[in-house]
TrEMBL record:
Pathway assigned to this chain's UniProt record: Protein modification; protein glycosylation
GO molecular function: glycosyltransferase activity
Keyword Zinc: no
Entry superkingdom: Eukaryota
One record GO biological process: protein O-linked glycosylation
InterPro entries: OGT/SEC/SPY_C (IPR029489), TPR-like_helical_dom_sf (IPR011990)
Species, as recorded: Aegilops tauschii subsp. strangulata
This protein's UniProt keywords: Repeat, TPR repeat, Transferase
Presence of the UniProt keyword Transferase in the record: yes
O-GlcNAc transferase C-terminal domain sequence ranges: 1-136, 149-335
Protein name per its UniProtKB record: O-GlcNAc transferase C-terminal domain-containing protein
Length: 368
């Protein structure tokens, strides 16, 4: 979200960032602090003091970027310091909290037919709800020559490389069995995983061996710094997603690197994010499957049909600067449309209600 806070149109939107964590000196913290209209470090304050400050600042729409993750202070929202309270990004699921009015999501990630599993009213952004910052921060990835080589990471030069860079907890026995089947069906192939955490490496290799996959066909490398991680992703041939909890940030990382994926959406929000990312590239039909069998068969088909996989890879690389997925400014404009709609509903005396954001909306100042 690095660029988001400074991209809001200041003629129509006034942004307050309340930082719950201390200044860690990172480039992201410094950038947001410099670009946001108001940036207040509240890390040393108690939650009731923070809530009082938010209320005195007359915040109209308050966004919870943490949900149930480390460092969250949901008690601030429980005190309801703002008339409209919204969950976004930090927690890919329902908060189950009566004091959170809306969840910002999209039609694919949270279909209306599953609205009953959310306590919040669903706000569907166009394209994909999941924002990213690559167009502003990682344009060097678009260069034709990758500065890394497979040999830099102990990866074989002459084999087909399936990859998954998700944390190991996202794997379950069914998907790992499917990966083993894929590797066994594709001659001269390996699976590239991360030591994320390192303690999982020996267990995973033992699990693979029990399923007839040689331990040397499972290659682990260390977690890399963000920039290197994105750039080296293109050393792989095909990304295999984890259905029970998808690649979210990792998904945008590898798509920006031009690496196609296979993903199987289920019902819950965290199982559908990668599918939304793929759809927002315009190439979703080629990367989204509907069953475990189709997942396995599609992976094998692409791996054994180099021309088909190369065509998909080329198309993905070609659309990176034009597709909605990586258009941060367009995404921010749509988020602002959502905020104005929420406020208009509130001002008309109505209770929060689900709605779909349209890119041409007369309620929004930009579109008049």
């Amino acid at each position: 979200m690095g660029s988001v806070f400074g991209m809001h149109d200041r003629d129509n939107v006034e942004v307050f960032c309340y930082a719950l964590s201390q200044n860690d000196g990172t480039e992201w913290r410094q950038r947001i602090q410099a670009e946001a209209e108001h940036f207040i470090d509240v890390s040393a304050m108690t939650s009731d003091v923070i809530a009082k400050m938010i209320n005195e600042d007359k915040i109209q729409v308050l966004i919870n970027l943490n949900g149930y993750t480390k460092g969250a202070r949901n008690e601030i929202f429980a005190m309801q310091p703002a008339p409209i309270q919204v969950s976004y990004m930090g927690f890919p699921g329902t908060t189950g909290a009566s004091y959170i009015d809306y969840l910002v999501t999209d039609e694919f990630v949270s279909p209306t037919r599953y609205a009953h599993i959310y306590s919040e009213k669903l706000v569907h952004l166009p394209h994909c709800y999941f924002v990213n910052d690559y167009k502003q921060k990682n344009c060097d990835v678009l260069g034709p020559v990758c500065p890394h080589e497979r040999s830099d990471y102990g990866l074989p030069k002459d084999k087909f490389i399936f990859a998954c860079f998700n944390q190991l907890y996202k794997m379950d026995p069914e998907i790992f069995d499917t990966w083993c089947n894929i590797v066994k069906r594709v001659p001269n192939s390996v699976l590239w995983l991360l030591r994320f955490p390192a303690t999982g490496e020996m267990r995973v290799k033992a699990h693979a061996a029990a399923r007839g996959v040689s331990p040397d066909q499972i290659i682990f490398t260390d977690v890399a710094m963000k920039h290197e991680h994105i750039r080296r992703s293109e050393l792989a041939d095909l990304f295999l997603d984890t259905p029970l909890c998808n690649a979210h940030t990792t998904g945008t990382d590898i798509l920006w690197a031009g690496l196609p994926m296979i993903t199987l959406p289920l019902e819950k929000m965290a199982t559908r994010v990668a599918g939304s990312l793929c759809l927002a590239t315009g190439l979703g039909d080629e990367m989204i499957v509907s069953s475990t069998k189709e997942y396995e068969d599609r992976a094998v088909e692409l791996a054994t049909n180099p021309a088909k996989l190369q065509a998909l890879t080329n198309k993905l690389k070609e659309v990176r600067l034009t597709c909605p997925l990586f258009d941060t400014a367009r995404w921010v404009r749509n988020l602002d449309r959502a905020y104005f709609k929420m406020w208009n509903i509130y001002c008309s005396g109505r209770h929060p209600e689900p709605f779909k954001v349209k890119e041409d909306d007369s309620e929004f100042p930009y579109d008049r």
